[in-house]
Amino acid sequence: MKHKILFLLLLVTLSSFSITGCDQGQKTEKVSQSITKKYTQATFIEGIVSNDKGVIKTGMVEVTDENGHLITHVAVDNSHFRVEIPANTALPMLLTFSSDSSAEKLVTVVIDDRITKYFINPSSTAIAKAAKAIGGYTRTNMIRAAEDTVHTPDANKTTTGWRGDPTTQYGGWH
Length: 174
Known about the structure:
With 174 residues, the protein is of the alpha+beta class. The chain has helices spanning 2-34, 122-134, 139-149, and strands at 43-51, 54-55, 58-65, 70-77, 80-85, 93-99, 102-110, 117-120, 157-158, 161-162.
């Protein structure tokens, strides 16, 4: 009888520690999401622009904040772009491609100052729109939007979830 009481007391104590640990992890995540990330120094980001027909040779990539304020812009050269982001630029940012020859606007979202290569394509555009509809351009919303937006063949899934990275640059499977 004495052993059962000690066992139950130990079980209750361990359970309270694990519940407290989970709760603190959630608080940390909420706090880190509210901190605004910025580029600490001038940084070059680059990438490729494409649509369903292939690479797009010419056009313009505008870099804006999430409110649409222009930060900088650059011309697309043979489907590639490379643009310098000034120091202290806050994230998230949008990279929006447009062209005189097409009304099609393509978008990708920059939410991490450590990533410097981006794809601007119809998949990244769909993910950006879905994340905005969910509640904004946070890491959590971008991942959720990527998982919900990008079609994944059944052969690429496992019983434990995704195989591969459906969020590569938030532009889908690459």
